[in-house]
Every structure is written in C-alpha cells, then in structure tokens.
TrEMBL record, chain A:
4Fe-4S ferredoxin-type domain boundaries: 358-387, 397-426
Name of the gene: rnfC_3
Family matches, as InterPro entries: 4Fe4S_Fe-S-bd, 4Fe4S_Fe_S_CS, Ion_transpt_RnfC/RsxC, Nuo51_FMN-bd, Nuo51_FMN-bd_sf, RnfC_N, Soluble_ligand-bd
Keywords: 4Fe-4S, Coiled coil, Electron transport, Iron, Iron-sulfur, Metal-binding, Repeat, Transport
Name of this protein: Electron transport complex subunit RnfC
Length: 494, 355
C-alpha cells in the first residue's frame, strides 16, 4: 500500500532490543494495590466503597463523573484498606485521591456477564460495555474510549485505524501483545468496527517490529482488517501522524479525528475492548515494559493496576547500580519519577531506570539558530522562536507561533545541539497561559457577582423608594380625601 | 531537592562542539592545500588569525564575567577566524589578520551577546571592514608558489613577509576577478581580458592567484558536500547561491559574451564556493526554514553577481552576504512552515470526511 509523506520526526536509538524478545510474564499479585481515582482524561471517579469493605476482582469501586470520565474497578479481591491521598506518578511527587486495597490472595473475579457471541450485540450494547469496563486510551493519552466510540458513531466514521506504532524507544509492551495475543486484538478491532460501522480498517505497525507484523497479518487473514507496515520513525505513534501516513489526510487543528471520519485506537485498547465485550471484564491490568540500562533483567509484565513501580523493578532483578533517572512511560515523553513508590495506572506503558549515559544530559548552551528543531518538528512549528519568546517572558507571543499546536513530543529537544530543554519551555508556557486563563475567568466571575450585587442593591433601593413614594402618595391622597371630607362636612354644617 | 528533569530523557549525540568540529574538518583539506600552495606566509597568517580570535574572545567573555572555557571550547570563534584567514590575501601583513579576527569575534559577535546573537556573519563583517579600511593590503595577491618550488619563501623569509612588511617584489599578481575588472576599466573586452589569464581547470585546482579559500574551488566543494552528507548543513542555501550567480551569468553571457562572463567563470572564481558552502550556511545569520534558506541563498548569489558585474569592487560575496543577513529577520517573518491541521495562514482546516 502507498503510504503518505510525513514531516519532521527523529530517529532515536530504539533500545527496544533490551525487552523485545522477553515474553510476557504475569507479575505475582502484590500484597497491596494503590488504585488512583483519576487515571484518565476528565473528571476523577467517585469512590463507591468504604474503608473495610470486601471487594471482588473487577468490582466497581469508583463511578465515572460527568460526560468525560471513566469508572475504576478493583484489580484483585480483598479488603479496602484506605481511601485517601497517595503519591501519584508525577514529577512533583504530589498526591492524588487513591483507594488502597489489601489483596486476599484469592484473586477472585466478580461474576461477569459473558457474551457467547459478542458480534450479536448491538453497537449500543458494545459501547455500554466499553464504558462500564473503564477502558481508556492505553497508548498513554488515557482518553475514555467509550466517549470516543460514541463520538465516532455520531459522526459516522468511515475509517478505523488501530495504532500499533509504539514509536517510543525502549517500550515493547504493544509489540509483545501483538506477537502473543494477535487473535484477541483482531477480535477487539472487529468489535470496535462493529460498534462504529467503519468501512475501512487499518492496523499501522512500525516496520521495526517484523514479528508483530507477521503475527497480526496471520491473525487478520480472511477478515476485513488490513495490517500495514509504516516507517519506524518517532513520533509515528502520534495518532494524527498515523492518520496522515495511512490516509494522507490531516485532522483540523480545532477538530477531532472524527471530523475527518477517522477513529484511532491503540492495539492494547482493542485488546481491552475484547475482554470487556466478550467476557464483561473491566480493565484491571495492563502490560508494562520494564527496561533501561540500570535494570538487571528487563522484560514485559502483565501488571494489576495499582501495583507500585518499585515492585516491578524488584521483580525484574532490581538495579545494577543506582539509576540516574527513573521514568514512567517512554524516554521521549515520559515523566521523571521522584520515587518508585507510585502506582501503575491504566496509561502506564513502561517504567524505565536509565543510566546517565542513556540520558545524555549536559548543560544547555546558547541557541545557534541551526533550525534542527524546525526540521524535526512533526507539527511544523518554530521551536527556537517559541522558546525565545517564552524566555523573554512573552508566552502570549509564542501562542501566535503555534504553542497550542505543540504536542510535546520532544523531537526538538532531542535534536538540539545546544541541549536546550525546549519542551520544558513550552510546557511551562502552557501552564502559565492556563493560569492566566484561570485568573481571567475568576476575575470575570467576580465582576459578574459584583455587578449582580450592585444591581440587586440598586433594585432594592429603587423598589424601596417606589414603595415609599407609593405609600406617601396614598397617605397624601388619604389626607386630601379627609381634608376634602372635612371641608365638605364643614360646608354642610354651615 | 533534585531539579526536576523534563522529557525527553534521551538525546541525540550532538553538540555545538561537534558541529563546529565537523565544519573545521571540512575546511581542512582546502586549507592544507592552500598552505602548500602559498607556503609559510599563509600559515603564519592563519595562526595569527586564530590566536587573535582566541585571545580577543576570551577577553570579551571575561569582561562579561562569564566562564571563558566553555565559550572558547565551542569552537565557533576558531571557525570564524579560520574562515576569515582563508579569505585574506595569503601574504597580507600580520596586523590585517589580527585586526580582522578581533573585529569579528569582539565587535561583530560578543558585543551583540555572543554565539547565536550576532545579526551579521562575523567573518564577512570583518572582511568587509578590512576591505574598506585597507584596500591596498587587501588587494595585493600573489601567484602560487608551492612549498616545494624553488621560489617559495622559506620560513625565515615568511616571517619577514608576514611581520616586517617585506615588499613582495616580483610576486604580486591580481586575482582573476580583479584583473578582469581592471581590464574592463581600460576598455578591453572579455576576450582580451581573459586571454592567457583564465583556464577553468586552473580555477578548479587552484593554481592561480587568490586567497586560500578561493583557489581550490574543488576542495571547498568537496568539504561542502561532506557537510551535507553529515547533515550539518542542507543543500538549500548553497544550491540557491550557486544558481543565483549562474543563472544571470548564463543569460547575460548569451546576450553579450564579450562583456558578461559565463557561469563557469563566476562559479569557480573568487569566494563563491567558500561563500556558498561555508558562509551562507552559517545558521546564526541565515533563515530558519528550508524555503527561507533558499531565498536567502538566491539573494546572496544574485547580489554577488550584480556587484561583480556592475559594482565598484571586483568581488561581492562578503557584501552580498551582509546585505542578505540584514534581510534574514524579514525572511523569517514571512516564511513559516505550515502547521499540521492548519492552512498557510494558520487557520484551522475544515472538517472533510473524505469520500
């Protein structure tokens, strides 16, 4: 198949060989699981259990709130130990509302509703099951999948693209999933197709994963699913990049993929959809790649949601020497972990322990305007000019250059010969703009309230004055009447 | 408290030092060939240039209270001095090189804020300053006298030439461009001017009067191709500059071959090759986008040809580059890449469900 030309991108050292040939191993159930209530884009889930409650594996413990949200389920059977704040996977080390579950070791599933023929379900039923299973985009975006499904059904998407790009270096969990569970993925893909009624179905896989490509092609044989090799180039797994490579179309900057009739899901999401639709099983575990130069025995683990990152490292033989940096996610977009005592969430594709050699960080030097960043940017931005504006304290000026279109993929920082942390600048500016926006909203709200109050006071005063005037008029009328009556009476007397 | 490290947590194996080092490497063959061609005086001049740049930049940086070592180690000052040195007449006196280098790194670069901040190419700014201020010293060229030949000045003699102003009896010569310009002012046609003075192959191999960087057009070209292969520079600006000179040269030559020299004459003479591959590709003073760089290169080429053809100076690369340097912010303002999902004006594309 003819692929379409892409722009920008970089070729980081893939380092996938560290874990790519390690078969999936199931992590033994840890004693405690720390399940955050916000593991997705949108509103956090509302806890439905109390401390001390017994829960079964797959039991709903947090209900989704609002339009964009996702429910949370117990990853194993046991007892609710605590509901409260626990460190989240964020460089700040800040806490997030979390349900702590003490495993009872039985790992007993809740009775679930198995669909003997999932393809007999209506699209509505499939969407409902996906929503109930708490499935989110597992490539890392963690957008609630059911919301995407419903949006796509409303927009009648034509093309379903399954993203097997996995362009982040080191990360191999999707690769392993495709190699070992291709048939299940293809079934999940066909269920999604069934739900949205897409006509064209393509699975895009980077050509640096030949085994996964072969396994998926074999599994898709005889179905309407086409498995296509795409160039190995970061960020191939950016959904919009994948769309461009496979269809040649671009998603409008102000729109969603559904606007051009395309729905994109990750391969791991398709796998989770199959579990949810066929077995009624919610998303309570995922594959995580444990890798990096400091890890003794890198590998790919099937991990219950809520497992601490340190447990994964321990299971993989611990560290060979102190790692220079621990990262949740891939090296290009992942976040630094201040501590490994944070839980794995639905969007965690990997945990890395990197040596200083792998990080390659040195002191930033001045920008020489070499425009390597301009050539590397897959979006078509001018990172060097944006950073210059932000450095000068002009975040608004960087918006005019396209700051809001930046996807923080890290290509610019990666190629910069001066080692300028460009993405850091951009995320700083995005935060600053968000803050400005908040302040503005607050000011507007305050002004509205103040205006309303002034108006109210004025109205009350007006009403009082009117009432007083009325009373006065009535009184005067009465007095006048009395006077007239008195005068009349007087004349009559006379 | 640890400083928070932001993604990406990996980096391409690149640095400014490596970029500058690669450019210096690309310049080395042409420079060594020039050393052989012009002998010890050329080597002296090169050494004085580099030494002056290092001392001058170190002094300027220490005045700013910044660490001197990392600035000197990035290699950018050395590159500037090197480019300047190979654009000078090889037998020029030492103070020309010293003054030029100091002007380049201190006035044209550090005064503006150092690496990355200078609006004009420092080497070209220095060359233009020297040419305007010291026209005599800057236009005395010598015919090549390879180190192995009998009439090459020995090392002691070279010290006299470089440092003591020893007159260049019998060795002085004019560069090709200078010679033709002089002949034109005498009313001669191109056929007379070039008779016995011009052979394209000589230009390729460098056996004619000129600076180190212009005699061996072929080695400069190879150095440039090496930089393109190593992805230090892209083809846009160099090709555009060569086109900017060659296309008008070809057109005018077709109209009046006796007055307008052909493209080969222009491409292989003067500082054009050096300019195309090592000067207009200077990232600091050229535009950010490929299209912008093409426009920039085209402008440099066109202006060079115009100055050579109708201007008062025989060579125009340095002037052309500085004029286009001044236009770089303008080009960058108007030439931007198209953002994904937007049209050229930055407006979001409209939804189109395809067929």
């Amino acid at each position: 198949m003819k692929l379409f030309r892409l722009r920008g991108g970089v070729h980081p050292e893939s380092r996938k060989e560290l874990a790519a040939d390690r078969a999936i191993r199931v992590l033994p159930m840890p004693g405690r699981l720390y399940v955050p209530l916000l593991q997705h884009v949108g509103a956090p889930a509302q806890p439905l259990v109390n401390v001390g409650d017994k829960v079964l594996k797959g039991q709903l413990i947090g209900a989704g709130q609002g339009v964009i949200s996702a429910p949370i389920h117990a990853p194993t059977s046991g007892r609710v130990l605590a509901i409260g704040d626990f460190p989240a996977a964020h460089p700040s080390g800040l806490t997030a509302p979390t349900i702590t579950i003490e495993a009872d070791g039985e790992d007993r599933w809740l009775e679930t509703e198995v669909a003997s023929d999932p393809f007999a379900l209506t699209p509505d039923e499939i969407a409902a099951r996906v929503a109930a299973a708490g499935i989110v985009g597992m490539g890392g975006a963690t957008f609630p999948s059911a919301v995407k499904l419903n949006l796509s059904r409303k927009n009648r998407v034509r093309t379903l693209i399954i993203n097997g790009g996995e362009c982040e270096p080191y990360i191999t969990c999707d690769d392993r999933l495709m190699r070992e569970r291709a048939a299940e993925i293809v079934e999940g893909v066909r269920l999604i197709r069934h739900a949205v009624g897409a006509i064209e179905i393509m699975v895009g896989i980077e050509e640096n994963k030949p085994a996964a490509l072969a396994a998926m092609q074999a599994a898709a044989m005889g179905t309407e699913v086409r498995v296509i090799a795409v160039p190995a180039m970061y960020p191939m797994g950016w959904d919009k990049q994948m769309i461009r490579a496979l269809t040649g179309r671009e998603v409008p900057a102000d729109g969603r993929t559904a606007d051009i009739g395309v729905l994109v899901h990750n391969v791991a999401t398709a796998y989770a959809v199959r579990d949810a639709v066929r077995f009624g099983r919610p998303l309570v575990s995922r594959l995580v790649t444990v890798s990096g130069g400091s890890v003794v025995e890198p590998g790919n683990l099937e991990v219950p949601i809520g497992t601490l990152v340190e447990t994964l490292f321990q299971y993989c033989g611990g560290f060979a020497g102190k790692p220079a940096r621990m990262v949740l996610g891939g090296p290009m977009m992942g976040v630094e972990l201040a501590t490994a005592a944070v839980p794995i969430v639905k969007g965690s594709s990997g945990v890395l322990a990197l040596t200083s050699g792998e990080i390659g960080s040195v002191q930033p030097a001045p920008c020489i305007r070499c425009s390597s960043c301009v050539r590397a940017c897959p979006v078509g931005l001018l990172p060097l000019d944006m950073a210059a504006h932000i450095r000068a304290g002009d975040s608004t000026g960087s918006v005019a250059l396209g700051l809001k279109d930046c996807i923080a993929c890290g290509c610019c920082s990666f190629v910069c010969p001066s080692h300028i942390p460009l993405v850091h600048y951009f995320n700083f500016a995005k935060g600053e703009l968000m803050e400005q926006e908040r302040v503005k909203l607050k000011q507007e709200a305050t002004k509205k309230l103040a205006d309303a109050r002034n108006e109210r006071i004025a109205r009350i005063a007006r009403e009082r004055a009117e009432a007083a005037a009325k009373r006065k008029a009535a009184r005067e009328a009465k007095e006048r009447a009395a006077k007239e009556a008195a005068a009349k009476a007087a004349t009559e007397v006379v | 408290m640890n400083k928070i490290a932001h993604s990406p947590h990996a980096h391409a194996p690149v640095s400014i030092g490596k970029v500058m080092g690669t450019v210096l490497l690309a310049l080395t063959p042409a420079t060594l060939f020039g050393f052989w061609l012009y002998g010890w005086p050329a080597i002296n001049l090169w050494a004085v240039s580099l030494a002056a740049a290092i001392v001058g930049e170190g002094f300027a940086v220490s005045l700013q209270g910044r660490a001197v070592r990392p600035v000197l180690m990035d290699g950018s000052g050395i590159l500037t001095a090197w480019l300047l040195a190979i654009s000078l007449p090889p037998f020029a006196p030492w103070w020309i090189a010293a003054l030029g280098s100091l002007f380049a790194v201190v006035i044209s670069k550090q005064v503006f804020g150092g690496l990355g901040q200078n609006p004009f190419n420092p080497a070209m700014a220095a060359r233009v300053m020297l040419l305007i201020s010291f026209p005599l010293e800057m236009t005395i060229w010598v015919a090549p006298a390879p180190l192995s030949s009998a009439h090459a000045p020995d090392w002691l003699e070279s010290l006299h030439i470089t440092f003591m102003h020893q007159p260049l009896d019998g060795m002085a010569s004019a560069s090709l461009l200078g010679h033709v310009k002089t002949e034109f002012t005498r009313g001669a046609g191109l056929d007379q001017a070039l008779a016995g003075y011009y052979a394209p192959l000589d230009a390729l191999w460098g056996s004619r009067a000129g600076s180190l960087g212009e005699t061996a057009a072929l080695l400069i070209l190879l150095g440039g191709l090496f930089l393109i292969a190593r992805r230090i520079i892209t083809w846009h600006a160099p090709v555009a500059m060569l086109l900017g000179v060659a296309v008008p040269a070809l057109l005018f030559n077709m109209v009046n071959p006796n007055h307008y020299a052909g493209p080969m004459y222009h491409l292989l003479s003067g500082g054009l090759m050096l300019g195309a591959f090592f000067i207009v590709t200077d990232p600091v003073t050229s535009p950010n986008t490929a299209t912008g760089q093409f426009i920039f290169g085209l402008g440099c080429g066109l202006l060079t040809w115009i100055i050579r053809t109708w201007g008062g100076y025989p060579e125009g690369v340095a002037f052309a580059v500085m004029l286009m340097n001044a236009a770089t912010p303008l080009i960058d303002y108007y030439v931007n890449p198209r953002i994904y999902g937007r049209d050229r004006k930055g407006v979001s594309l409209t939804a189109n469900k395809g067929s």
